[in-house]
Amino acid sequence: MNIPEKSENELLAQLRQEGRNDPEAIYFHTPLCGTCALAERMLGIVLETGTAMPVTKVNINFAPVLRETWRISSVPCLVILENGRPARIEYALHSVVDLHRWLKR
């Protein structure tokens, strides 16, 4: 499954909208990161089950505001948002089972 990608500005505009209460996840990556590619494939498997919250990916190289504000220190990084704010930040994306547990609705 293809994970939709947004720019930092698009994501910030989305997060500023009122009424954004549904949980969602932001997947931070870089294009040349092998571990990021593997994590993205695992996320795709989880999303294909249809039981996961929405996931959007963002290239960390072009997201300095979010990187600094949310103190993201490395990639891959999965940020689970509740009410538009980070509720959980995960760097070690070990397995599809872990991802499924974190992303279930």
TrEMBL record:
Stretches assigned to the Thioredoxin domain: 21-88
Parts forming coiled coils: none
Q: Which InterPro entries match?
A: Thioredoxin-like_sf, Thioredoxin_domain
One Pfam short name: Thioredoxin
What protein am I looking at? Thioredoxin family protein
Natural source organism: Paenibacillus faecis
